[in-house]
Amino acid sequence: MMGKVLRDRRRKTRAYDNVTSFAVLAALLAGAPALAQQQTPPNEPQDQTDTTATPADPGITGSTAAQPEASPTEVVVTGTRITTGFNAPTPTTVIGEDQLQKNAQPNIFNAIAQLPSLQGSTGASTGTFSTSSGTQGLSSFSLRGLGPIRTLTLLDGQRVVGANVTGVPDISMFPQLLVKRVDVVTGGASASYGSDAVGGVVNFITDTRFEGFKANVQGGITNYGDDEQVLVQGAYGTALLDDRLHLIVSGEFDHEGGVGAGNFGTDLAGGRNWYRATTLLNTGVTDNGLPQFNYRDFAQPYQYALYGLINNGPLQGIAFDQNGTPYNFNYGSGGTPTGTGRVTNCYPGNSFCVGGDLSGAPGSGASLKSELERLNGFGRIGFDFAEDNEVYLTVNVAQVKTSNQPSPGYNRPNLTVQCANAFLPQLVRDRCAAAGITQFNFGTSNGSFPDPQVRTDRRQYRFVGGLKGKFDIGGSDWTYDAYYEHGITMSDIDVDDIVLQNRYVAATNAITLNGAVVCADPAARAAGCQPINIFGGFAPSAAALAYITPENGPFQHTKLTQDVASLNFSGAPVELWAGPLSVAFGAEYRREYYRVRADPYGAGVMDVSPNSPEYPADPLLNADQGSNWAAGNYKNGSGKYDVYEGFLEVNLPLFDSPSIGRANLNAAGRGTHYSTSGTVWAWKVGGTWDTPLEGLRLRAVTSRDVRAPNLSELFAAPTVTTVPNFTDPFRNRAVQIFQNTIGNPDLKPEIARNTEVGIVLSRPSWLPGFSLSLDYYNIKLDGVVSTLSPDQIVRFCFEGNQAFCGGFELNSPVQGGNFVNVQPFNLASWKTSGFDIEASYQWTQPLGLPGSFTVRALGTHVREFLVSAGIAGVATVDQAGANTGATPDWKWLAVQTYENDRFSLTLQERWFSDGVFGNQYVVCISDCPVSTGNNPTIDYNRMKGAFYLDIGGSYNVTKEVTTFFKVDNVFDHDPAPSPQTNTGLDVNPALYDTLGRIYRLGVRMRF
Predict the structure, then answer these.
(1) Phi/psi of residue 497, each to 5°?
(2) What's the pLDDT at 880?
(3) pTM, 2 dp
(4) Composition bias, kind Low complexity: at what positions (predicted)?
């Protein structure tokens, strides 16, 4: 019965509307003033400080969240909870619907992620090299490089159930056609919105009063003929019962073919030629005056080859071709085998040479982008039970499926082979006899094996019911918003064609018995073992493949639920000397829960019947601990926590005078009680000053922000990741290990101090249409939930710190017995600071031509990103400018658009600066200091940035129908190598475009 269950799991606006566009688009930069003017109520004067509204194209706008007085177009911009008029001190970048359309991306995530302040976001092009992470194809935002778990993503100001156990939602599941703007708050917002808003907030605002029909159909393909894209979207809205009943439905289908894996060696998919197997080669020597690490292209692993290589003993250097014929392996670097496992002139620290036979290197065999398919259905019904009061219900059902190949074949560098093996060529048997040996060490990429595939299937069901509206108390207008949300995510990860390691070992040990080739181990034979020939490119038989890579491969089934009950009020109870005192307050309850079940071979088989047809008992497998797969050893687990919180936000007008200008003070506080870690407080204090100088505004805010540990960090089912070429410094060799990552229920919330100071120049009369803002930010995060890497843990033990020596084994005689345990703690601290720059200029009727020309630019400079592990002996590392990560020194986005009533043309430039591999390295060629784990020596430490040009345009065929095109990465710019210290794809998709030039074409309709 259990087997069947496991198998089935695997198969299977009126006045109160606070999401309109007026105040946003009349904020800092000239964005979509044409739309803003259309939505401004007749005869209502515009706030005199928000003078950016001129005819322009709706797009990226830097917002101070300036609000008009309560009106039929009242707005909340995400930087605050208060709905009455004031200027919020927290910078907010706003992306309008028109700019999203001009980007013409199949997933709205791709357009938002281009913002310079978003650093380290994940998507379909990241995580493709991994088997066990569970984040393949997960589209999630990261602000300030602090990670997706420290960026709060909202839908209409409401939380969304996570797409995996980190609690991070998947933007692919949002109703994207109905999004009319996206607010990106680039500052701490925990006091206003709660936990996770350390880096900021990304809030998707949908059109809750849409009427009519609109559709979008587009297709795309890369210059290399892959990642074929088809996007079909449609939405319909209507008003009934004298405009009191509003009904909206939308549906979306998106298929992105992805960019598949290349081959062994250096061949990428589609004829891309930029992969050079760039590696940081480890000499293993730290004190000879030469650099420990050397930057080299075409690194060749010398422990294995495509179809097998003897890598130790007197026969070291004998390899096998596709036909199984022995030959002398061509080592790079002019190397020759020593018989001890090493190769002269090569790099023993991670077992690489340079050049030679690269045919067995698996690095280029990983997918560059996951194949992705998403379906989304959304419905909203709202009824005005009284004027300016609505009851509503929304339903969102979505599915996102992805697949990727993490690597080709099965890389096995440390196999022991008997000289009596039935498949071993006679020539090698004779050499064994002559050398007086009965066995040898052997490494192979198993190039004839099927390639592993990781498939994810995430299904989300989200229901929200709520009341919102306005009421009057003593002549004062108040708004309220109450809702209950229940969200469910069912996530399945299936891995195909992964090897059961002990079965593989048994199958490789073949003998001749009664004239037939069989597995040598009698117990393995009794359990169904079928022999395989690993000396050459001989594909295993169907029976052998079924034995070593059974159809019921690794899987993980996860259920996540989120329940949220929220009640918020906002109003202006008192009129003061400089304007109304504005107040917002509210309370929220939240419950997060997850449960994960994995296959018995990965998690342990004690709960499965010995007679299970899918998971039969096998003496070769570890029945209790699991971890039998070469990768994808998922574990069972569960956890939950409850959250109770309340907040108060106040806006106090300080003065309003023509002689000294206008200023306000904004303050907020939030108390939050977590069932797992107790009570924690968040607050913010800030303000803005519109100076007497025309168009000049100053703003500042400081806040205490929090992030509670998520379900994964607290209660994570242990995850096991295979590291095939881990450097063992004790024996100066590479070994295969398991990285065991486990949760920690004793974790406490992270505490951040976030400070921002800015200056804004908004459309002065001497340069109408021009806006400029400059903001300085400083974030200090303490008690960071983090872990050391396995390499750091082992290295610090090797260097004499005994505190790190109890959690690993690197010399186990047991097959698969090498491991390093990794667990999160509240030990680390981070500090980052820098500048944000936003500018816009809009020119109507340029050179006498009809229409408008708009120029916009956004830039972020990361001055520092200091990461301290909080452990004695572990140095602080500055990650700013390390282009192997996500925080380059400078990152820019610039857009130029000309448009008129008939057509538009847009140029977009994306650029980030040159950087380094890591700031911890000491660069030297000779006379090098002693290389340490904190400051290793290296001969080269430079990583080029990138510049990308995108071109797009549209043509209005009729008033209702528009055709459009888009070309991304016009110059087909190749990514810079991101060198690894292990075998892997040497690229950083978090920063660089790895796909090349992409063409898109489509049509939009609106009736």
Answers:
(1) 60, 40
(2) 97
(3) 0.87
(4) 45-58
